[in-house]
Structures
1.
Amino acid sequence: MSRARVVVVGAGPAGMMAAAQAARLGCAVLLVDEAPRPGGQIHRQPSPSLAGGAVSAAARPEAERKRRLFERFARHAGSIDHRPGTSVTAVYGLDRILIADETSSQLIRADALVVATGLHERVVPVPGWTLPGVVTAGALQALLKGGRVRAGDRIAVAGAGPLPLVAAAQMVEAGATVPVVALLRPLWLGLLRDPAALWAGRGVLSEGWRWLSVLRRAGVPVLTRHVALSVSGDGAAERLVIARHDGRGRPVPGTEQRFAADTIAFNHGFTANSDLARMAGAETRFDPRRGGWLPVRDSDGATSVPGLFVAGDAGGLAGGLAAACDGAVVGAAAAGWALHRDAGRFAAQAATDRAERARHWTFQAALAPSWELPPDIHALVTPATVVCRCEGVTRARIDRAIADGHDGLNGLKRNTRAGMGSCGGRSCLRTLAALAGPRGEGEAVNARPGIRPVALAALANRVSDESMGS
């Protein structure tokens, strides 16, 4: 390699800014992302044939953020080797990173590796959640942003935190009827106790108020302290049952309500995509509010593995605004390491982003209680409820394994096959950990090669192997 190389995994806000910053500071940058276009989940881009169209008043702040992000990225895009449609499926060390697209694979080297893989949605299973028509709130957004497709005509939404509200309002603007939004907790509890956080997040709060106004004008009931009990229907989702809960997540008898819907969306928070960092050997800790098993990182994004950095929500839920700032900070640190083995070498280059990141982090810390799940909510997972959708594993099977002494995640996975499916446990591991108790949450499942599924033909077609000097 003629120049020090920074490899960035993920082209969401954090990855885009990390790549742009490292390129600006003189590094050769390889940006790897599974999507066909950059932007990540939050700024998912439709195909060019579907681009354009009017932007509503509520959506304008996000559209403006997206414009600024892409403009900043575009200034350095010509110096970035962007590989869309490409996965990192294994990290054996910075000198052996396995990437693959649909037809071929490469084993590459990096002087610094930035993991900016974001997070995925968490759903607490309830009876009927595997019926056709049950999706996540993020899936509603992905279909709308990426394909201009509305998931249904009558869409009920339930969960925790701000995403269910925003997704529901976007469905209203897309022409759907939303019979209810049911939230586990009020959104403003932590914020009302922290005036500094309210001020720090005033722009985001204003945006949230616009989305809430969309729901109010449409007459959508927004119920707080309510929990989803079940989904039912004849071969597909047709009804959502909710109830007020007692503060610990258990339904209060006699408060049940039923809502007809052809689509039901859940979101109970998020789990960080930390498997690549863990596979590379990074130390992790468990933080239920910020995304589960998180790589331990310093303010520059540096982990316990020299040269390995984590940026954005992959290091802990903080939102898209914070992720973009964090990406710029981490990109500068990765460039300093790659070029000089000094992560602080270019700290001054990211001073503005560091200060802006601190403001967003203050706001997000106060908002975090809104998506903390009540302690007894997993009591709603009945013995017959499927927990692992890929392998069809029910709670009853998991409970038997726990009773037999398999109370760690790796033991449960081996014993029940929960988490062995094509999603890699993204849908079930947090539930599995909660059912297993303290040991389950303390023990991250082992991260192994094949983190992202790729074709065997692509693995067999190895076009280069930099670890061997080719």
2.
Amino acid sequence: MTMPKVVSIVEVGPRDGLQNEKSIVSVEEKINFINLLSKTGIKRIEAGSFVSPKWVPQMADSGDIFSGIEKSPSITYSALTPNIKGLDAAIESGVEEVAVFGAASESFSMKNINCSIEESLKKFEPVIAKANTHNIKVRGYVSCVMGCPYEGEISPSAVADVSKRLIDMGCYEISLGDTIGTGTPVATKRLLDSVLNVVNIKQLAVHFHDTYGQALVNLYSALEYGVATIDSAVAGLGGCPYARGASGNVATEDVLYMLNGMGINTGIDMEKLLVATQFISEVVNKVPSSKVANALLAR
């Protein structure tokens, strides 16, 4: 187990970050935000979600987003597609990569997508199969990997089982999500010890929320295992509507500062990232939760 020399940052702010904002962010503002992110050196941006506007009104305009952004051929712009209807809309919009969103907790699965884990996996099968026939890569999210707001601690073996099922269905990558941010470095290592028995390290990403201030130390633990893909959100945007008190994603600025200090390359320009941070923070009228952003923007 050695630290990676290069880490891929998946910027989830435009989707996972903005979807929980109560005030609707306009199409123009979202497009401007993504265009600013595209200039930072980030190579993977989760730009939208093709879900029912009834459940996630903030994402109702994802089709307009994908047609309006200035796409760079070197960047992958992805979208969440929980069902065939969403996938069809994504295909029509020219999306290159999609994601399905499962859980390692039965209770969370019922609250979040109104079905059991087994039922959710069966619903994902045709989505993944159809995406693969269109040469669209599919990413699999597994939420509540270290804790659930309803069940408490989650067994690493339960996470490993869902992760393997998604890989076997055709997902090329699994993003392990500490949705409510309760994980610790020891729990992170225990999780990876289990999941790595069934999923290759090159197929794993980590997606940590910072509710208890543990995200960076948990990421360090994952880096020690060789995990080289990290999900984060500019300004620490995000949260979880089904997890009371859950704060946003680990901030991209904080992750980048840590990786820079470790000599790990991401290809991301901090100054250009801060331009995107300042823009979206003003749009949502919030101070960034990123300590690095607040320190650097105050200069």
